[in-house]
C-alpha cells in the first residue's frame, strides 16, 4: 500500500510540472507574438477589415442620402399637385437642400432620384407661373377711382344711396372731394413723382388704329425708254465661228514658224498690251492641244523638270492614232489672273506679243 501511495504522489507531481511548463511556454509564445514584427498576412487582414468597415460606412451614408432624396421627391410631388404651396422662398430653399444632399451621392441610381426631383420642381414652378398669368385681372379705371375716393376722400362720397349713379356722375363727385395732401403723403413712399398712366397694372382702353387705304398710282412706263435684248442672228453666229477658226489657224501657223525645240509657253500666248487678248490666245491654244496640233512639255528629254513650260507644234492626230491611244492626253485647268499676267510680263521680260495684236471689234448699236 505505501508503494502505491508513493507512486500516485509521483504521478501528480509530474503532471503539475508539465502544466507549469506548458503555462510558461504559452506565456513565452504570447511574449514572442507581441514582440515579433507583423507579417504580410497580418497587414492584409487589417487592410481588409478597414476596407470592410469603410464599405459599411459608405453603404450607410448612401442609404441616408437616398432616404433624404426620397423625402425631397415626395415633398416636391406634393408641391406639384398643389402649386399654391410654392413660394419664392420655399422654391429656393428646396433647391439648396437638394444641392446639399446631392454632394454626398456616389451611386448613379440615387442620383436619378435627385434629377427627377429637380425636374418635378421645375415643372411645378412653371405651372405656378402659368396659374399666376391666368389669375391676372384687367385694370378697371372706374373701380380704381371708386376705391381711391373711398380711401383718400375728405368724406365718404360713396354711400349706399349712390349705387344707382351713373359713371360720369361718380367721377365728377369724386373729383372735388379727394384729399390730395393725404394722398400725396400715402403715395410718397412708393414714388417721388406722380406715376403716369402707362405704368399702371393692366391695359387701359386701347384705341384701335383705323387702317388707311391709299390708292396707289399706276406707274406708266415710257415706251421710248424700253431696251430690247440683242438679237443674235444665224449670220452673226457664222461670223463668230469663222473668226474663231481663222484665229486658231493663224496661231497654228505662228507656232510652226517657231523653233522645233519649242518656245516659252508664257511668252507665246501672253499679250503685254491686253489681258483680255491673252485670255483669248490661251482659249485658242486649247483647241490646238485638243486636236493634237500643239503640245506642252514640262520636262526635258532626260525627264528633268524645266524652269518653265514650253509649247511646240506637233502633227494632228489621226482617228486611228486616237483610237489606239498612241498619244497620251492630260486635261489641265489653268487659271490666269491679272496679277499672274503682270508677274509673267515682268518675269520673262515680255515686250512684244508673239501672237499678233487684234483691234477690238466695235459694238453694234441699235
UniProtKB/TrEMBL annotation:
Which is one Gene Ontology cellular component term of this protein? nucleus
For this entry, the protein name equals Non-structural maintenance of chromosomes element 4
**Domain of life of the organism in this record?**
Eukaryota
Bias kind Acidic residues: ranges: 14-31
Query: Which organism is the protein's source?
Result: Melampsora larici-populina (strain 98AG31 / pathotype 3-4-7) (Poplar leaf rust fungus)
Q: Where is the composition biased (Basic and acidic residues)?
A: 33-43
Q: Where is this region: Disordered?
A: 1-43
TM helices/strands, residue ranges: none
Its BP terms in the Gene Ontology are: DNA recombination; DNA repair
Where in or outside the cell? Nucleus
- List the PANTHER family: NON-STRUCTURAL MAINTENANCE OF CHROMOSOMES ELEMENT 4
Quaternary structure, from the entry = Component of the SMC5-SMC6 complex.
Query: Which family is annotated?
Result: Belongs to the NSE4 family.
| UniProt function note | Component of the SMC5-SMC6 complex, that promotes sister chromatid alignment after DNA damage and facilitates double-stranded DNA breaks (DSBs) repair via homologous recombination between sister chromatids.
The cross-references to InterPro entries, in alphabetical order and at most eight, read: Nse4/EID, Nse4_C, Nse4_Nse3-bd
* Start and end residues of each Non-structural maintenance of chromosome element 4 C-terminal domain: 263-355
> Does the keyword Glycosyltransferase feature in the UniProt annotation?
no
Q: Chief subcellular site? A: nucleus
| One Pfam family per UniProt | Nse4-Nse3_bdg
Domain Nse4/EID protein Nse3/MAGE-binding residue range list = 114-167
Which keywords appear in this protein's UniProt record, sorted alphabetically?
DNA damage, DNA recombination, DNA repair, Nucleus
**Polar residues bias: where?**
1-13
Amino acid at each position: 500500500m505505501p508503494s502505491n501511495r508513493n507512486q500516485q504522489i509521483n504521478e501528480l507531481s509530474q503532471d503539475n510540472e508539465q502544466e507549469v511548463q506548458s503555462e510558461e511556454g504559452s506565456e513565452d509564445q504570447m511574449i514572442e507574438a507581441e514582440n515579433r514584427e507583423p507579417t504580410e498576412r497580418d497587414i492584409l487582414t487589417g487592410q481588409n477589415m478597414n476596407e470592410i468597415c469603410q464599405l459599411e460606412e459608405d453603404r450607410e451614408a448612401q442609404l441616408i442620402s437616398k432616404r433624404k432624396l426620397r423625402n425631397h421627391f415626395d415633398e416636391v410631388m406634393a408641391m406639384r399637385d398643389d402649386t399654391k404651396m410654392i413660394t419664392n422662398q420655399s422654391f429656393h430653399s428646396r433647391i439648396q437642400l437638394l444641392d446639399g444632399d446631392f454632394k454626398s451621392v456616389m451611386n448613379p441610381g440615387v442620383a436619378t432620384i435627385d434629377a427627377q426631383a429637380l425636374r418635378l420642381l421645375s415643372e411645378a414652378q412653371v405651372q405656378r407661373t402659368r396659374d399666376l398669368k391666368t389669375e391676372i385681372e384687367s385694370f378697371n379705371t372706374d373701380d380704381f377711382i371708386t376705391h381711391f375716393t373711398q380711401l383718400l376722400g375728405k368724406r365718404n362720397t360713396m354711400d349706399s344711396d349712390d349705387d344707382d349713379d351713373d359713371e360720369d356722375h361718380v367721377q365728377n363727385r369724386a373729383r372735388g372731394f379727394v384729399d390730395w395732401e393725404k394722398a400725396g403723403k400715402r403715395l410718397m413712399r412708393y414714388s417721388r413723382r406722380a406715376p403716369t398712366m402707362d405704368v399702371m397694372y393692366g391695359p387701359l382702353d386701347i384705341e384701335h388704329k383705323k387702317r388707311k387705304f391709299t390708292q396707289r398710282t399706276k406707274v406708266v412706263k415710257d415706251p421710248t425708254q424700253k431696251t430690247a435684248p440683242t438679237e443674235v442672228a444665224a449670220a452673226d453666229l457664222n461670223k463668230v465661228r469663222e473668226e474663231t477658226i481663222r484665229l486658231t489657224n493663224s496661231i497654228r501657223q505662228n507656232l510652226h514658224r517657231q523653233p522645233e525645240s519649242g518656245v516659252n509657253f508664257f511668252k507665246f500666248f501672253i499679250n503685254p498690251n491686253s489681258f483680255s487678248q491673252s485670255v483669248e490666245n490661251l482659249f485658242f491654244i486649247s483647241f490646238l492641244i485638243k486636236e493634237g496640233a500643239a503640245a506642252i512639255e514640262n520636262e526635258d528629254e532626260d525627264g528633268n523638270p524645266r524652269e518653265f513650260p514650253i509649247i511646240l507644234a506637233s502633227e494632228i492626230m489621226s482617228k486611228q492614232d486616237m483610237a489606239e491611244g498612241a498619244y497620251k492626253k492630260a486635261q489641265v485647268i489653268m487659271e490666269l489672273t491679272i496679277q499672274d499676267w503682270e508677274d509673267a510680263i515682268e518675269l520673262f521680260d515680255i515686250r512684244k506679243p508673239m501672237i499678233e495684236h487684234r483691234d477690238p471689234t466695235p459694238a453694234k448699236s441699235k
